[in-house]
């Protein structure tokens, strides 16, 4: 019988949709802006696919694990720790040590990069780990591409190979200020099945890449439609578009542009939706995260399923990416939190990669889980 230690970070990802670029130290502010917990539902989505498969779960009590198992219909689990209220990183480390002592085969955690760091601090490389993505950024390589993929890796654990996965340490204060500061925190052992586990974020800074950004920007600026609301996502490629029309946006946030003017800077989901109510037409401009390939669901949760649908659906999304980035990104992914919307992207999208140049790039999907329980 496979034994899995489960950790859910109840506050993970709460800062995303409300434009905080992270939740560390910002829980009260996130709640004041209308943020709602999302980690439990992400965990439940994965755990529901694991119910009845003969897995022994070890969990902390309450919202750090037991509640998600109850919601998913998983019974017969063992509670190994009693976290405080509110929960802390120390609670994560205590639970992980209990998992190790109990002989867990895998630690399955639901959260973001901060949770990944806490788990690594507790177990180092003694036990394999796998993340159910529920944070804001998730630049580390320890995460499945979505909750269904996480479940499929657990089900296929015997055939998965273990690989070293970079755990990245993001300076959230710098991130909120528009500066990308990242360092390698450590390396975890992660079970890997192709197409189901993401890589670490990569940054491309070659001179040719910068020239490509300018060419993309020149093309997009030339085809912008008057009176259309442009929802411009994070990244240096999208920042180049704003620079081309003489604007300075938020490098790591979402800006709203209309008639070549910024109408909202660093917008959260609520602000975007309010502007969409008055917009005659809208377009969303986004760039996939280097190497990881996510169009939605990593670092741009402000562009929520509700925003995409209000803007007119996936057909209103313009994806931009330089040739260097695309060559290092085998496939694109969508993890919006709405599986039905994710499927509407189809099996490929056109990515603007230069002036009047586009590449057709595959959108990977997670195969349905069909193995018997």
Short description:
The protein has helices spanning 27-32, 39-48, 66-72, 89-101, 113-123, 147-155, 172-176, 207-222, 236-244, 269-277, 305-311, 323-327, 339-343, and strands spanning 3-8, 56-60, 78-81, 106-111, 129-133, 161-170, 182-192, 228-232, 255-258, 261-264, 281-286, 294-296, 317-320, 333-334, 348-354, 357-362. The chain is of the alpha/beta class and 373 residues long. The protein is elongated, with a radius of gyration of 20 Å.
Sheet with most strands: 7 strands, mixed
CATH class of the largest domain: Alpha Beta
SSE sequence, one letter per element:
EHHEHEHEHEHEHEHEHEEHEEHEHEHEE
**For the terminal residues, how far apart are their CA atoms?**
13 Å
Low-confidence stretches: none
State Rg: 20 Å
Average pLDDT works out at 88
* Overall body shape: elongated
Strand order of the largest sheet: 10-9-8-11-13-15-16
Number of helices: 13
- How many domains, as an integer? 2
Query: What is the number of E strands?
Result: 16
Give the percentage of residues in beta strands: 15-25%
Give me the secondary-structure category: alpha/beta
Instruction: Bin the helical content.
Output: 25-40%
**If classified by CATH, what would the architecture of the largest domain be?**
3-Layer(aba) Sandwich
* CATH topology-level name of the largest domain: Rossmann fold
Note down, in words, how this protein is organized:
The protein has 373 residues and is an alpha/beta fold. The chain folds into two domains: 3-192, Rossmann fold, CATH 3.40.50; 207-362, Rossmann fold (3-Layer(aba) Sandwich). The protein is 30% helix and 24% strand. It has helices spanning 27-32, 39-48, 66-72, 89-101, 113-123, 147-155, 172-176, 207-222, 236-244, 269-277, 305-311, 323-327, 339-343, and strands spanning 3-8, 56-60, 78-81, 106-111, 129-133, 161-170, 182-192, 228-232, 255-258, 261-264, 281-286, 294-296, 317-320, 333-334, 348-354, 357-362. The strands form four sheets. The protein has a seven-stranded mixed β-sheet, with helices on both faces. Strand 2, helix 3 (66-72) and strand 3 form a beta-alpha-beta unit. Helix 2 packs across helix 3 and helix 8 packs across helix 9 (236-244). The longest helix is centred in the middle third of the chain and has 16 residues, at 207-222. It is elongated and about 60 Å long.
């Amino acid at each position: 019988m496979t034994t899995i230690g489960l950790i859910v970070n109840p506050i993970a990802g709460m800062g995303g949709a409300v434009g905080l670029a992270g939740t560390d130290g910002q829980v009260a502010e996130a709640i004041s802006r209308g943020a709602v917990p999302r980690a439990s539902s992400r965990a439940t989505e994965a755990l529901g696919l694991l119910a009845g498969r003969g897995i022994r779960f070890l969990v902390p009590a309450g919202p750090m694990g037991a509640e998600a198992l109850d919601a998913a219909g998983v019974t017969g689990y063992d509670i190994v720790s009693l976290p405080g209220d509110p929960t802390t990183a120390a609670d994560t480390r205590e639970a992980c040590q209990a998992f190790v002592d109990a002989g867990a085969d895998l630690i399955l955690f639901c959260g973001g990069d901060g949770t990944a760091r806490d788990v690594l601090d507790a177990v180092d490389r003694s036990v394999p780990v796998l993340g159910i993505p529920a944070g804001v950024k998730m630049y580390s390589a320890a995460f499945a591409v979505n909750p269904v993929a996480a479940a499929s890796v657990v089900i296929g654990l015997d055939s998965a190979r273990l690989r070293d996965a970079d755990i990245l340490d993001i300076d959230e204060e710098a991130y909120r200020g528009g500066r990308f500061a990242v360092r390698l925190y450590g390396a975890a052992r992660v079970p890997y099945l192709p197409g189901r586990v993401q890589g670490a974020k990569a940054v491309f800074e070659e001179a040719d890449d910068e020239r490509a950004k300018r060419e993309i920007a020149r093309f997009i600026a030339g085809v912008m439609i008057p009176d259309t609301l442009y929802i411009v996502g994070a990244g240096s490629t999208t920042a180049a578009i704003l620079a081309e029309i003489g604007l300075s946006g938020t490098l790591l946030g979402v800006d709203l542009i209309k008639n070549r003017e910024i109408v909202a800077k660093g917008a959260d989901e609520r602000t975007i939706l309010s502007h969409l109510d008055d917009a005659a037409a809208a377009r969303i401009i986004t760039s996939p995260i280097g190497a990881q390939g996510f169009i939605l669901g990593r670092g741009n949760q402000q562009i929520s399923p509700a925003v995409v649908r209000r803007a007119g659906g996936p057909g209103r999304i313009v994806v931009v990416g330089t040739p260097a980035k695309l060559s290092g990104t085998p496939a694109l992914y969508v993890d919006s939190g709405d599986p039905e919307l994710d499927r509407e992207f189809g099996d490929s999208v056109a990515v603007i990669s230069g002036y009047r140049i586009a590449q057709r790039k595959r959108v990977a999907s997670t195969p349905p889980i069909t193995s018997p329980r």
